[in-house]
Amino acid sequence: MMKKNKINLWLFFLPIILLSSCDNELDQSPFDSLQTDKAFITASDFENGIRGAYFALTLGGYYGSADQGSMLSMPDVLSDNVIMTQRGRFTKRNLHEFTYTQASTITSFYNDAYNVIYSANQVLYYLDMNDFQGPSRENIKAEALALRAFAHFDLVRVYGKIPTQSSDANASLGVGYVTEPDPWVTPSRLTVAETYDAILEDLLEAYDKIDSDNGIGRFNKETVALLLSRVYLYMGGEENYQKCVDYANEVTTPIASREDVKEIWTDEKDSGLLFYITNLAGAGELNNQIGITWGQGPVDGIVPEYAVTFEFMNKFSEDDIRRESYTHTVSGSGQTYNGIKKLFGKPGQFNGIVNYKILRAEEALLNKTEALFFLGREAEALNALNQLRDERYTSYSGGESGNGLLEAIKLERRLEFAFEYQRFFDLKRWGDDMIRQATGDLVDGSGTPSAALSLEAGDHKWQLPFFQQMLARNPNLVQNPGY
Question: What is the pTM of this model?
Protein backbone atom coordinates (compact mmCIF):
# COMPACT_ATOMS: atom_id res chain seq x y z
CA MET A 1 0.00 0.00 0.00
CA MET A 2 2.78 2.42 0.89
CA LYS A 3 4.29 2.15 -2.61
CA LYS A 4 1.14 3.24 -4.45
CA ASN A 5 1.52 6.41 -6.56
CA LYS A 6 5.22 6.58 -5.74
CA ILE A 7 7.16 9.62 -6.95
CA ASN A 8 9.60 9.08 -9.80
CA LEU A 9 12.31 11.55 -8.87
CA TRP A 10 14.16 11.70 -12.14
CA LEU A 11 11.22 13.39 -13.82
CA PHE A 12 11.39 16.29 -11.41
CA PHE A 13 14.95 17.49 -11.30
CA LEU A 14 14.61 19.99 -14.16
CA PRO A 15 12.12 22.41 -12.55
CA ILE A 16 13.73 22.08 -9.14
CA ILE A 17 17.29 23.00 -10.09
CA LEU A 18 16.18 26.33 -11.49
CA LEU A 19 15.76 27.76 -8.01
CA SER A 20 18.21 25.59 -6.09
CA SER A 21 18.97 26.84 -2.61
CA CYS A 22 22.68 26.42 -3.27
CA ASP A 23 24.20 29.84 -3.90
CA ASN A 24 26.23 28.78 -6.93
CA GLU A 25 23.11 27.52 -8.70
CA LEU A 26 21.09 30.67 -8.07
CA ASP A 27 23.25 32.41 -10.66
CA GLN A 28 22.19 30.16 -13.54
CA SER A 29 20.75 31.76 -16.66
CA PRO A 30 16.93 31.71 -17.03
CA PHE A 31 15.21 28.57 -18.26
CA ASP A 32 14.80 27.87 -21.97
CA SER A 33 11.17 28.84 -22.58
CA LEU A 34 10.97 26.87 -25.84
CA GLN A 35 12.04 23.66 -24.11
CA THR A 36 9.61 24.33 -21.28
CA ASP A 37 6.75 24.92 -23.74
CA LYS A 38 7.40 21.48 -25.21
CA ALA A 39 7.63 19.90 -21.76
CA PHE A 40 3.93 20.62 -21.04
CA ILE A 41 1.78 19.13 -23.77
CA THR A 42 0.23 15.82 -22.75
CA ALA A 43 -1.64 14.70 -19.64
CA SER A 44 1.46 12.78 -18.63
CA ASP A 45 3.54 15.96 -18.93
CA PHE A 46 1.26 17.83 -16.53
CA GLU A 47 1.15 14.87 -14.14
CA ASN A 48 4.94 14.93 -14.06
CA GLY A 49 4.94 18.68 -13.55
CA ILE A 50 2.61 18.60 -10.57
CA ARG A 51 4.56 15.76 -8.99
CA GLY A 52 7.64 17.94 -9.38
CA ALA A 53 5.97 20.57 -7.21
CA TYR A 54 5.29 17.94 -4.54
CA PHE A 55 8.89 16.78 -4.74
CA ALA A 56 10.04 20.32 -3.92
CA LEU A 57 8.40 19.93 -0.50
CA THR A 58 11.14 17.41 0.36
CA LEU A 59 14.01 19.83 -0.26
CA GLY A 60 16.37 20.22 2.70
CA GLY A 61 15.29 23.68 3.72
CA TYR A 62 11.57 23.02 3.47
CA TYR A 63 10.38 19.72 4.98
CA GLY A 64 13.88 18.26 4.84
CA SER A 65 16.63 18.14 7.46
CA ALA A 66 18.78 21.17 6.64
CA ASP A 67 21.28 21.87 9.41
CA GLN A 68 20.28 25.54 9.46
CA GLY A 69 16.66 24.62 10.12
CA SER A 70 13.53 23.79 8.16
CA MET A 71 9.83 23.26 8.74
CA LEU A 72 10.78 19.78 9.92
CA SER A 73 12.65 21.09 12.96
CA MET A 74 12.37 24.88 13.23
CA PRO A 75 9.02 25.10 15.10
CA ASP A 76 10.28 22.88 17.94
CA VAL A 77 13.85 24.19 18.05
CA LEU A 78 12.46 27.72 18.45
CA SER A 79 10.13 26.69 21.25
CA ASP A 80 10.02 24.81 24.55
CA ASN A 81 9.68 21.21 23.32
CA VAL A 82 13.35 20.46 22.73
CA ILE A 83 16.75 21.38 24.13
CA MET A 84 20.09 21.46 22.33
CA THR A 85 22.43 18.84 23.73
CA GLN A 86 26.09 19.34 24.53
CA ARG A 87 27.07 16.16 22.65
CA GLY A 88 25.72 17.11 19.24
CA ARG A 89 27.00 19.34 16.43
CA PHE A 90 25.19 22.46 17.69
CA THR A 91 23.15 22.71 14.50
CA LYS A 92 20.39 25.34 14.46
CA ARG A 93 21.99 26.94 17.50
CA ASN A 94 21.15 30.47 16.40
CA LEU A 95 17.48 29.48 16.19
CA HIS A 96 17.41 27.82 19.60
CA GLU A 97 19.19 30.72 21.27
CA PHE A 98 17.34 33.46 19.33
CA THR A 99 20.59 34.95 18.06
CA TYR A 100 19.53 34.97 14.42
CA THR A 101 20.15 38.05 12.33
CA GLN A 102 19.94 38.73 8.61
CA ALA A 103 23.54 37.49 8.37
CA SER A 104 22.87 34.34 10.41
CA THR A 105 19.46 32.78 9.92
CA ILE A 106 17.74 29.99 8.00
CA THR A 107 19.27 30.19 4.55
CA SER A 108 17.35 27.80 2.30
CA PHE A 109 13.75 27.69 3.53
CA TYR A 110 12.77 30.82 1.59
CA ASN A 111 14.19 29.58 -1.71
CA ASP A 112 12.91 26.02 -1.26
CA ALA A 113 9.36 27.21 -0.51
CA TYR A 114 9.41 29.43 -3.59
CA ASN A 115 10.61 26.38 -5.52
CA VAL A 116 7.24 24.77 -4.78
CA ILE A 117 5.51 27.97 -5.85
CA TYR A 118 7.54 28.25 -9.05
CA SER A 119 6.81 24.63 -10.00
CA ALA A 120 3.09 25.08 -9.30
CA ASN A 121 3.01 28.29 -11.31
CA GLN A 122 4.64 26.56 -14.28
CA VAL A 123 1.86 24.00 -14.32
CA LEU A 124 -0.83 26.67 -14.05
CA TYR A 125 0.74 28.81 -16.79
CA TYR A 126 1.11 26.04 -19.34
CA LEU A 127 -2.35 24.63 -18.69
CA ASP A 128 -3.64 27.88 -20.19
CA MET A 129 -0.88 28.73 -22.65
CA ASN A 130 -0.94 25.30 -24.29
CA ASP A 131 -4.73 25.10 -23.89
CA PHE A 132 -4.61 21.69 -22.26
CA GLN A 133 -8.17 20.30 -22.14
CA GLY A 134 -7.65 16.76 -20.89
CA PRO A 135 -10.02 15.25 -18.32
CA SER A 136 -7.44 15.78 -15.55
CA ARG A 137 -7.14 19.54 -16.22
CA GLU A 138 -9.27 20.84 -13.34
CA ASN A 139 -7.81 18.42 -10.80
CA ILE A 140 -4.22 19.27 -11.75
CA LYS A 141 -5.05 22.97 -11.63
CA ALA A 142 -6.54 22.52 -8.18
CA GLU A 143 -3.46 20.68 -6.92
CA ALA A 144 -1.20 23.45 -8.23
CA LEU A 145 -3.33 26.15 -6.59
CA ALA A 146 -3.34 24.27 -3.28
CA LEU A 147 0.42 23.76 -3.34
CA ARG A 148 0.98 27.43 -4.16
CA ALA A 149 -1.22 28.45 -1.23
CA PHE A 150 0.40 25.91 1.10
CA ALA A 151 3.92 27.21 0.45
CA HIS A 152 2.88 30.86 0.75
CA PHE A 153 1.16 30.06 4.04
CA ASP A 154 4.33 28.52 5.46
CA LEU A 155 6.31 31.54 4.30
CA VAL A 156 3.96 34.08 5.85
CA ARG A 157 3.79 32.34 9.22
CA VAL A 158 7.60 32.28 9.40
CA TYR A 159 8.31 35.82 8.17
CA GLY A 160 5.06 37.62 8.99
CA LYS A 161 2.81 38.03 11.98
CA ILE A 162 -0.21 35.78 12.47
CA PRO A 163 -3.56 37.63 12.46
CA THR A 164 -4.46 36.51 16.02
CA GLN A 165 -0.98 37.36 17.33
CA SER A 166 -1.54 41.09 17.89
CA SER A 167 -3.93 43.89 17.01
CA ASP A 168 -1.60 45.29 14.33
CA ALA A 169 -0.88 41.95 12.64
CA ASN A 170 -3.17 42.25 9.62
CA ALA A 171 -1.71 45.61 8.59
CA SER A 172 1.90 44.46 9.05
CA LEU A 173 4.13 42.99 6.35
CA GLY A 174 3.31 39.56 4.97
CA VAL A 175 5.09 38.04 1.96
CA GLY A 176 5.10 38.48 -1.78
CA TYR A 177 2.42 36.31 -3.42
CA VAL A 178 3.87 35.01 -6.67
CA THR A 179 1.51 33.84 -9.41
CA GLU A 180 3.81 33.79 -12.46
CA PRO A 181 6.42 31.19 -13.49
CA ASP A 182 9.34 33.60 -13.48
CA PRO A 183 12.40 32.39 -11.57
CA TRP A 184 13.74 35.93 -11.42
CA VAL A 185 10.61 37.60 -10.06
CA THR A 186 11.24 40.24 -7.36
CA PRO A 187 7.94 40.50 -5.49
CA SER A 188 7.09 43.19 -2.97
CA ARG A 189 5.62 42.18 0.35
CA LEU A 190 1.85 42.34 0.72
CA THR A 191 0.26 42.99 4.08
CA VAL A 192 -0.58 39.98 6.22
CA ALA A 193 -4.27 40.48 5.45
CA GLU A 194 -3.61 40.62 1.71
CA THR A 195 -1.42 37.53 1.88
CA TYR A 196 -4.12 35.55 3.70
CA ASP A 197 -6.74 36.73 1.20
CA ALA A 198 -4.59 35.41 -1.67
CA ILE A 199 -4.04 32.10 0.14
CA LEU A 200 -7.78 31.70 0.66
CA GLU A 201 -8.57 32.53 -2.94
CA ASP A 202 -6.31 29.74 -4.15
CA LEU A 203 -7.48 27.22 -1.55
CA LEU A 204 -11.18 27.88 -2.10
CA GLU A 205 -10.86 27.40 -5.85
CA ALA A 206 -8.76 24.29 -5.25
CA TYR A 207 -11.38 22.88 -2.89
CA ASP A 208 -14.09 23.24 -5.53
CA LYS A 209 -12.08 21.51 -8.27
CA ILE A 210 -9.84 18.92 -6.66
CA ASP A 211 -10.61 15.20 -6.73
CA SER A 212 -11.59 13.35 -3.59
CA ASP A 213 -8.85 10.76 -4.02
CA ASN A 214 -5.56 11.47 -5.81
CA GLY A 215 -3.57 8.70 -4.14
CA ILE A 216 -0.60 8.77 -1.81
CA GLY A 217 1.72 11.76 -2.03
CA ARG A 218 -0.87 14.17 -3.47
CA PHE A 219 -3.48 16.56 -2.12
CA ASN A 220 -7.19 15.76 -2.29
CA LYS A 221 -10.44 17.37 -1.14
CA GLU A 222 -9.96 16.43 2.51
CA THR A 223 -6.40 17.75 2.46
CA VAL A 224 -7.54 21.12 1.17
CA ALA A 225 -10.38 21.18 3.69
CA LEU A 226 -7.82 20.69 6.46
CA LEU A 227 -5.69 23.52 5.09
CA LEU A 228 -8.74 25.80 4.97
CA SER A 229 -9.55 24.96 8.59
CA ARG A 230 -5.97 25.85 9.52
CA VAL A 231 -5.98 29.17 7.70
CA TYR A 232 -9.34 30.22 9.16
CA LEU A 233 -8.14 29.25 12.65
CA TYR A 234 -5.05 31.42 12.20
CA MET A 235 -7.21 34.33 11.01
CA GLY A 236 -9.47 34.26 14.06
CA GLY A 237 -12.76 36.04 14.65
CA GLU A 238 -16.26 34.60 14.93
CA GLU A 239 -16.93 34.17 11.20
CA ASN A 240 -13.54 32.58 10.56
CA TYR A 241 -13.79 30.25 13.56
CA GLN A 242 -17.12 29.00 12.21
CA LYS A 243 -15.54 28.38 8.81
CA CYS A 244 -12.72 26.56 10.56
CA VAL A 245 -15.30 24.24 12.13
CA ASP A 246 -17.15 23.79 8.84
CA TYR A 247 -14.06 22.77 6.87
CA ALA A 248 -12.71 20.62 9.68
CA ASN A 249 -16.00 18.72 9.54
CA GLU A 250 -15.30 17.93 5.88
CA VAL A 251 -12.34 15.81 7.01
CA THR A 252 -13.92 12.40 7.51
CA THR A 253 -10.75 10.31 7.74
CA PRO A 254 -10.67 8.89 11.30
CA ILE A 255 -7.86 9.88 13.60
CA ALA A 256 -5.36 7.17 14.45
CA SER A 257 -6.53 4.72 17.07
CA ARG A 258 -4.46 4.15 20.20
CA GLU A 259 -3.42 0.78 18.78
CA ASP A 260 -2.00 2.34 15.61
CA VAL A 261 -0.21 5.42 16.96
CA LYS A 262 3.16 3.81 17.58
CA GLU A 263 3.37 2.14 14.16
CA ILE A 264 2.53 5.32 12.24
CA TRP A 265 5.97 6.69 13.05
CA THR A 266 7.74 3.54 11.88
CA ASP A 267 5.73 3.58 8.62
CA GLU A 268 3.93 0.34 9.43
CA LYS A 269 0.54 2.09 9.52
CA ASP A 270 -0.89 5.15 7.80
CA SER A 271 -3.89 5.74 10.09
CA GLY A 272 -5.01 9.36 10.13
CA LEU A 273 -2.49 10.45 7.50
CA LEU A 274 -4.09 12.82 4.99
CA PHE A 275 -0.92 13.74 3.13
CA TYR A 276 2.45 12.03 3.25
CA ILE A 277 5.30 11.42 0.83
CA THR A 278 6.95 8.03 0.77
CA ASN A 279 10.64 8.07 1.63
CA LEU A 280 12.16 4.71 0.86
CA ALA A 281 15.80 3.60 1.03
CA GLY A 282 17.68 2.57 -2.09
CA ALA A 283 18.60 3.74 -5.57
CA GLY A 284 15.85 5.64 -7.36
CA GLU A 285 14.05 6.39 -4.10
CA LEU A 286 14.11 9.54 -2.01
CA ASN A 287 16.40 7.87 0.53
CA ASN A 288 16.49 11.03 2.69
CA GLN A 289 17.73 10.70 6.27
CA ILE A 290 15.37 13.28 7.67
CA GLY A 291 15.68 11.86 11.19
CA ILE A 292 19.23 13.11 11.55
CA THR A 293 17.75 16.51 12.29
CA TRP A 294 17.35 15.21 15.88
CA GLY A 295 20.40 12.95 16.15
CA GLN A 296 22.50 10.23 14.57
CA GLY A 297 23.25 6.66 15.62
CA PRO A 298 21.56 3.76 17.45
CA VAL A 299 19.69 4.05 20.74
CA ASP A 300 22.75 3.05 22.76
CA GLY A 301 25.26 5.12 20.82
CA ILE A 302 23.44 8.19 19.60
CA VAL A 303 24.92 11.59 18.93
CA PRO A 304 21.85 13.67 19.81
CA GLU A 305 21.38 17.10 18.27
CA TYR A 306 18.30 17.85 20.38
CA ALA A 307 16.51 16.06 23.20
CA VAL A 308 13.05 16.40 24.72
CA THR A 309 13.09 19.00 27.47
CA PHE A 310 12.71 17.62 30.99
CA GLU A 311 9.64 19.80 31.55
CA PHE A 312 7.92 18.62 28.37
CA MET A 313 8.81 14.99 28.94
CA ASN A 314 6.92 15.16 32.22
CA LYS A 315 3.81 16.40 30.37
CA PHE A 316 3.41 12.93 28.84
CA SER A 317 1.55 10.80 31.36
CA GLU A 318 2.56 7.16 31.70
CA ASP A 319 -0.64 5.94 30.04
CA ASP A 320 -0.36 8.38 27.10
CA ILE A 321 0.48 6.21 24.08
CA ARG A 322 2.38 9.16 22.58
CA ARG A 323 5.02 8.91 25.30
CA GLU A 324 6.37 5.60 23.95
CA SER A 325 5.51 6.46 20.33
CA TYR A 326 7.20 9.86 20.19
CA THR A 327 10.03 9.55 22.71
CA HIS A 328 12.57 7.04 23.99
CA THR A 329 15.55 6.92 26.30
CA VAL A 330 18.83 7.09 24.36
CA SER A 331 22.49 7.07 25.36
CA GLY A 332 25.59 8.52 23.81
CA SER A 333 29.04 9.60 24.94
CA GLY A 334 28.35 8.24 28.40
CA GLN A 335 25.20 10.34 28.89
CA THR A 336 21.48 9.52 28.77
CA TYR A 337 18.81 11.67 27.14
CA ASN A 338 15.10 11.87 26.53
CA GLY A 339 15.36 11.15 22.83
CA ILE A 340 12.97 11.99 19.99
CA LYS A 341 11.60 8.87 18.35
CA LYS A 342 9.28 10.26 15.69
CA LEU A 343 11.80 10.25 12.84
CA PHE A 344 14.18 7.60 14.17
CA GLY A 345 13.59 4.99 11.46
CA LYS A 346 11.52 2.06 10.27
CA PRO A 347 11.37 -1.12 12.43
CA GLY A 348 14.87 -2.12 13.48
CA GLN A 349 16.44 0.91 11.76
CA PHE A 350 17.99 4.09 13.10
CA ASN A 351 18.91 5.81 9.83
CA GLY A 352 16.15 8.41 9.97
CA ILE A 353 14.66 7.26 6.64
CA VAL A 354 10.92 7.45 7.24
CA ASN A 355 8.02 8.93 5.29
CA TYR A 356 7.31 12.66 5.29
CA LYS A 357 4.10 12.90 7.31
CA ILE A 358 2.90 16.41 6.62
CA LEU A 359 -0.88 16.56 7.26
CA ARG A 360 -2.93 14.42 9.67
CA ALA A 361 -6.62 14.13 10.47
CA GLU A 362 -5.81 14.90 14.12
CA GLU A 363 -5.19 18.50 13.15
CA ALA A 364 -8.69 18.90 11.74
CA LEU A 365 -10.12 17.63 15.03
CA LEU A 366 -7.95 19.91 17.16
CA ASN A 367 -8.55 22.92 14.89
CA LYS A 368 -12.28 22.32 15.31
CA THR A 369 -11.90 21.88 19.07
CA GLU A 370 -10.12 25.19 19.48
CA ALA A 371 -12.47 27.10 17.17
CA LEU A 372 -15.50 25.75 19.04
CA PHE A 373 -14.01 26.98 22.31
CA PHE A 374 -13.46 30.48 20.94
CA LEU A 375 -17.03 30.46 19.61
CA GLY A 376 -18.20 29.89 23.19
CA ARG A 377 -19.45 26.34 22.48
CA GLU A 378 -17.57 24.71 25.33
CA ALA A 379 -19.60 21.52 25.58
CA GLU A 380 -18.96 20.78 21.90
CA ALA A 381 -15.29 21.69 22.30
CA LEU A 382 -14.92 19.32 25.25
CA ASN A 383 -16.62 16.53 23.34
CA ALA A 384 -14.25 17.01 20.39
CA LEU A 385 -11.23 17.10 22.68
CA ASN A 386 -12.36 13.86 24.31
CA GLN A 387 -12.50 12.16 20.91
CA LEU A 388 -8.73 12.58 20.76
CA ARG A 389 -8.11 11.77 24.43
CA ASP A 390 -10.14 8.58 24.15
CA GLU A 391 -7.55 7.31 21.64
CA ARG A 392 -4.47 8.45 23.53
CA TYR A 393 -5.08 7.60 27.21
CA THR A 394 -6.40 4.61 29.08
CA SER A 395 -8.06 7.09 31.45
CA TYR A 396 -8.17 10.84 32.06
CA SER A 397 -10.04 13.23 34.33
CA GLY A 398 -11.66 15.54 31.75
CA GLY A 399 -14.68 17.71 32.49
CA GLU A 400 -12.79 20.99 32.09
CA SER A 401 -14.49 24.33 31.44
CA GLY A 402 -13.48 27.94 30.95
CA ASN A 403 -9.76 28.66 31.03
CA GLY A 404 -9.09 25.13 32.23
CA LEU A 405 -10.60 23.79 29.01
CA LEU A 406 -8.52 26.16 26.89
CA GLU A 407 -5.37 25.03 28.68
CA ALA A 408 -6.34 21.40 28.12
CA ILE A 409 -6.84 22.07 24.41
CA LYS A 410 -3.46 23.76 24.19
CA LEU A 411 -1.78 20.90 26.05
CA GLU A 412 -3.26 18.21 23.82
CA ARG A 413 -2.22 20.14 20.73
CA ARG A 414 1.32 20.41 22.10
CA LEU A 415 1.46 16.70 22.92
CA GLU A 416 -0.13 15.51 19.68
CA PHE A 417 2.09 17.56 17.38
CA ALA A 418 5.31 17.36 19.36
CA PHE A 419 8.34 17.52 17.01
CA GLU A 420 5.95 18.06 14.10
CA TYR A 421 5.85 21.57 12.55
CA GLN A 422 3.48 23.27 15.01
CA ARG A 423 4.65 24.45 18.43
CA PHE A 424 6.32 27.79 17.62
CA PHE A 425 3.41 28.86 15.43
CA ASP A 426 0.84 27.88 18.04
CA LEU A 427 2.54 29.98 20.70
CA LYS A 428 2.89 32.79 18.19
CA ARG A 429 -0.75 32.87 17.12
CA TRP A 430 -1.95 32.58 20.74
CA GLY A 431 0.19 35.59 21.66
CA ASP A 432 1.80 33.55 24.47
CA ASP A 433 5.27 34.03 25.89
CA MET A 434 7.68 31.18 25.17
CA ILE A 435 9.12 30.08 28.51
CA ARG A 436 11.67 27.29 28.99
CA GLN A 437 12.55 25.82 32.35
CA ALA A 438 16.17 26.13 33.53
CA THR A 439 16.69 22.38 33.44
CA GLY A 440 19.48 20.65 31.56
CA ASP A 441 19.73 18.43 28.52
CA LEU A 442 20.08 15.07 30.32
CA VAL A 443 17.35 12.56 31.08
CA ASP A 444 16.83 13.67 34.69
CA GLY A 445 16.94 17.40 33.96
CA SER A 446 20.58 17.79 34.97
CA GLY A 447 23.21 18.93 32.54
CA THR A 448 23.33 22.17 30.59
CA PRO A 449 20.19 24.34 30.27
CA SER A 450 19.30 26.31 27.16
CA ALA A 451 21.23 29.56 26.85
CA ALA A 452 17.98 31.46 26.21
CA LEU A 453 15.02 30.69 28.45
CA SER A 454 12.26 32.96 27.16
CA LEU A 455 10.88 34.94 24.26
CA GLU A 456 8.23 37.47 25.20
CA ALA A 457 5.09 37.64 23.11
CA GLY A 458 5.84 41.12 21.77
CA ASP A 459 9.42 40.40 20.72
CA HIS A 460 10.28 41.06 17.08
CA LYS A 461 12.04 37.69 16.88
CA TRP A 462 8.73 35.87 16.47
CA GLN A 463 9.16 36.98 12.85
CA LEU A 464 12.38 35.58 11.43
CA PRO A 465 14.70 37.80 9.39
CA PHE A 466 15.25 37.43 5.67
CA PHE A 467 18.75 36.25 4.83
CA GLN A 468 20.89 39.12 3.55
CA GLN A 469 21.41 37.47 0.15
CA MET A 470 17.65 37.37 -0.35
CA LEU A 471 17.56 41.11 0.22
CA ALA A 472 20.40 41.63 -2.24
CA ARG A 473 18.68 39.60 -4.95
CA ASN A 474 15.29 41.24 -4.51
CA PRO A 475 15.43 45.03 -4.11
CA ASN A 476 11.69 45.04 -3.37
CA LEU A 477 12.04 42.79 -0.32
CA VAL A 478 11.77 44.77 2.90
CA GLN A 479 13.46 43.36 6.00
CA ASN A 480 11.39 42.70 9.11
CA PRO A 481 11.55 45.37 11.86
CA GLY A 482 14.24 44.91 14.49
CA TYR A 483 16.91 43.37 12.24
Answer: 0.93
